[in-house]
Write a structure and sequence with these properties.
By secondary structure, the protein is an all-alpha fold. It has one domain. The chain is 68% helix and 0% strand. It has four helices and no strands. α3 crosses α4. The termini are far apart.
Length: 105
């Protein structure tokens, strides 16, 4: 009975090299620590980190340009203090205007 079942299996499935190769591929693609899914996730994370690194490099360049401009010109420094940090002289008043959004119907 087992002999009849074994005879019905195609000969290429009985090949020990093919079976070993398929088992090796399954091991590499799904069961290994560095399988295909984890490699994809790591590449995606690496791409995101590289984009983040580029953003921070560009931001550092812009900040260094602004810092050199502020250190060189006292009027720019005063303008930044007044606009961004709402600083004022003792004899001045500051009025903040907040616009209400238009009501849509």
């Amino acid at each position: 009975m087992i002999k009849k079942f074994i005879d019905r299996i195609p000969s290429f499935l009985k090949n020990k090299y093919l079976l070993t190769g398929v088992a090796f591929l399954i091991l590499l693609l799904f069961l290994d620590r560095n399988n295909l899914i984890s490699q994809y996730n790591m590449r995606k994370e690496l791409h995101g980190l590289r984009k983040e690194l580029k953003f921070y490099h560009d931001q550092a360049k812009l900040d260094s340009i602004e810092l050199s401009r502020l250190m060189g010109d006292s009027l720019e420094l005063e303008k930044l203090g007044r606009e961004k940090y709402m600083m004022k002289c003792d004899s001045e008043d500051i009025y903040i205007i907040i616009r209400k959004p238009a009501i849509q119907k």
